[in-house]
Sequence to fold (325 residues):
Amino acid sequence: MCYIALVPADGLVSQMRRGALEYCVMALIRDTPRYAYELIEALGKTGLLTTEGTLYPLLSRLRRDGLVKTEWRESTDGPPRRYYELTAEGRRALTAFKNEWTSFRGAVDGILQEGTKS
Amino acid sequence: MTALHADQLIDGYLARLRVAAIDLPSSVREELIEDMRAHIGEARGHEPAETDASVLNILDRLGEPTTIVGDARERLGIRPAEPYRPGLLEIAAVILVPFLWPIGVILLWISPAWNWRDKLIGTLVPPGGYIGLSFILAAATTQVSSCGTIRDQAGHLIQSSCTGSPELPGVLLVPLTILVFGSPLISAAYLAIRLRWRPRPPVAATA
Fold:
């Protein structure tokens, strides 16, 4: 009880959102390469990304870890854009996270629902 | 309506970002700034009619530079720069610059605790420390003492002349002597005062 009281709910949600965000980005480029602004538009609709600028360090981290690769492509309405694409290693990491997340979500949902019944 | 101050607003934002990111590794910093520049360009292209307000909204959505840099540090595992704490190296440099100039100067230039100007002052005021001063004074004394006299057969002085610098009046001689002999110590005291705690280069954690 004491431990839970030390972790405010909003801080916990913020940490969870932060941790899940990189996998959401990877999921968005699983099938189609996208450029950063497209990702921001997609994430903006979900409310997962509150500060748009923080996407760039995240993409940089994914690239440095070899989970995504990038390619510059010409744009019809402006300068070239850097497109992000998932690597094979990125795919494995995303699949692993998806399995963990499904299991975690199921466990938490089960307990939360049990708690409301009793 | 047009965005009369768009360029100034964007330049100001990127300048604040650069300041916030000053202790990030240069490759990370430059990439971050270029990403932001590209993002702003892209976002401006999506605005149907650009105004100063729409540019400010783009920058607001992008986020505070300190927040973005803090996030970059955390995501990329870059520890915040720790201040450099002067230690034995600096103490040795301050002591040795006046008395054992060559070694003191090497230590002075190795240490990151002084800036370029302080190092130059420490090196050249006076050049060589007390060792350099002794050489300069020895040379000056030799030059001043080269005096000659002309006497007649009876030994009477006809003409006396000295080559070299003219003698200084007594009023100036004392403070000048103190200044010259004190200058290595003054220089050392200046270096001690100018010791500063500088940020160490950031360290990127290996993932």
